[in-house]
Specification:
40% helix, 3-stranded mixed β-sheet, Helicase, Ruva Protein, domain 3, 2 domains, globular, Rossmann fold, alpha/beta, 15 helices
């Protein structure tokens, strides 16, 4: 296998009675079956993989390296997510994971990159667009319909794909704010509606006014949210734990005073407003690293998708060498952090830096060989020179 050449995962065989070898075979049903809440995938549905099959697919480290070429500064998250995906694929371990991290820390980019590198069908859904069935808005069944369409209406690919639900915290009482009036239009009812999917129960989807059964037991599910304010919940929990320790036993305080600062528990998510039923189906909590100056510098320099590298390559294609001063990347990073939206703002800052320069390049009648960015170009994008 050539470097960076990724072989898509072999799709898990389905346990349906009808043959799935013909992907275009329809699964139309006359009556919608009753959806049963809860329950894990039965052991009888487990189909073991042989050693030769395992050796035929890319090593987990190869997948991780490909993702790291795009997502910078989130190595722990990448390793953790990769392990969950491989466990789901090879060990049939149900994958219902929660990714927590602030805005612009790379949650969505990480999952998109994994899906593309592994050749898996996926859909990214915003939870705020969905309501409890019976209210105005999309029902959660639409998520599966979107996944099915993204898979090219291939049931085998869709049922073994990835469902990513962002902004899930907005459906909790805390996520909806202190002024929540108790209506279930976009809150707890949506979380309850997700339970069958999270449990691996079959669901009904409608495509072109026809109803089909969608098996979710092999579906990989990732819930995501920034969970703004949960830091205070964790801090309170740790302080209470410390106080309880000091009352009971002061001799072993070192064991209590060195907690993992990045660890969040289901207890924290429960306090935040997630229901016990939802938390009971989450298998793992992943946490992104916060975005700081050093990570933003690395993103600019190392990511294949870095907007700076795109400008650099584009200018090179025009025969123009780009030169920057020593603190350029730090200056761009600090200007980006001022907006408090993480790496998401990096493209906007960089586009501003290059706007005046690129305009002059396109307008110049003389052949330009060097484009030089000068200090404080993030404050005044005319601070450049062309030779």
């Amino acid at each position: 296998m050539k470097k960076n050449e990724i072989v898509p995962f072999k799709q898990l065989p389905s346990t349906e009675e009808f043959s799935k070898t013909e992907i275009t075979q329809e699964k139309e049903i006359k009556e919608e079956p009753k959806i049963e809440y809860g329950g894990d995938t039965p052991l009888t549905s487990y189909i073991p993989f042989q050693l030769d099959e395992l050796e035929a697919y890319p090593r987990i480290s190869d997948i991780e390296e490909c993702v790291k070429e795009i997502v910078v500064g989130q190595d722990e998250l990448i390793r953790s997510v990769a392990t969950s995906l491989y466990n789901a694929h090879y060990m049939n371990i149900r994958c219902v994971d929660f990714i927590m991290g602030g805005s612009g820390t790379g949650k969505t980019l990480t999952m998109e990159t994994f899906c593309k590198e592994m050749g898996l069908a996926y859909t990214i859904e915003n939870a705020t667009q969905y309501t409890q069935e019976g209210y105005v808005g999309e029902s959660v069944n639409t998520m599966l319909t979107n996944l099915f369409k993204n898979a090219g209406k291939d049931f085998q690919k869709a049922e073994n794909g990835i469902l990513i639900i962002d902004e899930i915290g907005k459906k909790t009482t805390k996520g909806r704010g202190k002024n929540n009036d108790g209506r279930d239009v976009s809150g707890e009812g949506v979380l309850d509606s997700l339970l069958p999917i999270l449990s691996g129960s079959p669901m009904n989807i409608k495509v072109d006014n026809r109803t089909f059964k969608f098996e979710t037991k092999n579906l990989k599910i990732f819930l995501m949210d920034a969970c703004s304010g949960i830091e205070e919940i964790k801090k309170k929990r740790l302080e209470e734990k410390h106080m309880g320790f000091f009352i009971n036993d002061k001799k072993d305080k070192s064991k209590i005073l060195s907690p993992e600062k990045s660890i969040y528990t289901k207890e924290d998510l429960l306090e935040y407003g997630f229901t016990p039923e939802i938390l009971g189906r989450i298998n793992k909590i992943h946490v992104t690293n916060p975005i700081d100056t050093q990570i933003l510098i690395r993103i600019q320099k190392e990511s294949k998708d870095s907007i700076f590298r795109m400008y650099e390559r584009g200018l090179a294609n025009l025969g123009i060498k780009l030169e920057v001063y020593d603190d350029f990347f730090k200056e761009v990073a600090e200007a980006t952090l001022d907006y408090k939206t993480g790496a998401r703002e990096l493209a906007n800052t960089t586009n501003y830096v290059f706007e005046a320069l690129m305009h002059e390049v396109y307008d110049s009648k003389d052949r330009v060989k060097v484009a030089e960015l000068r200090k404080e170009v993030t404050k005044d994008n005319t601070n450049f020179a062309l030779y």
